[in-house]
Amino acid sequence: MIFIIIIGMSLVTMLPRIIPAFLVEKIIFKDWINKWLSAIPYAALGAMIFPGVLYVKENDPSVGIIGGLVAIILAFLGLNVMFVVVGAILTVLLITM
User: Fold this and answer.
1) What is the C-alpha to C-alpha distance for residues 21 and 15, in angstroms, rounded to an integer?
2) Residues 54, 64: contact at Cβ < 8 Å?
3) What is the rounded average pLDDT of the residues 70-85?
4) Cα dihedral 96/65/58/52 (nearest 10)
5) Quick one: how far is CA 82 from the chain centroid?
6) How many percent of the chain have pLDDT more than 90?
7) Per-residue pLDDT tens for 16-40?
């Protein structure tokens, strides 16, 4: 009985993940939909990072915001991701010293 339950639960969680993967390959989306879908990972990453930026220093969200702005500027300059991260960290470190 437990084995049947495990198989059933695995099918219930596996099917909703596998079926769209096969269907999406066969569907041709318009260009604006593809552009919108390609932005989803960046939006999700921003949604996970931004709350942490506000809590870099307790009772002073401006420190994290300044560090975030430095990271944005460095990213727009086309620097490597490691330099962007280190630049933001150094900015916050220098502000809090």
Assistant:
1) 10
2) yes
3) 94
4) -120
5) 16
6) 52
7) 888 888 887 788 888 998 889 888 8
| Identity at 37, one-letter amino acid code | L
User: DSSP of the chain, one letter per residue?
Assistant: -HHHHHHHHHHHHHHHHHHHHHHHHH----HHHHHHHHTHHHHHHHHHHHHHHHTSSTT-HHHHHHHHHHHHHHHHTT--HHHHHHHHHHHHHHHH-
Helices 61-76/81-96 angle, 10° precision: 150
Residue 64's Cβ-count burial label (10 Å; 0-12, 13-18, 19+) is buried
Q: What is the pTM of this model?
A: 0.59
Neighbour count for residue 10 (Cβ, 10 Å): 10
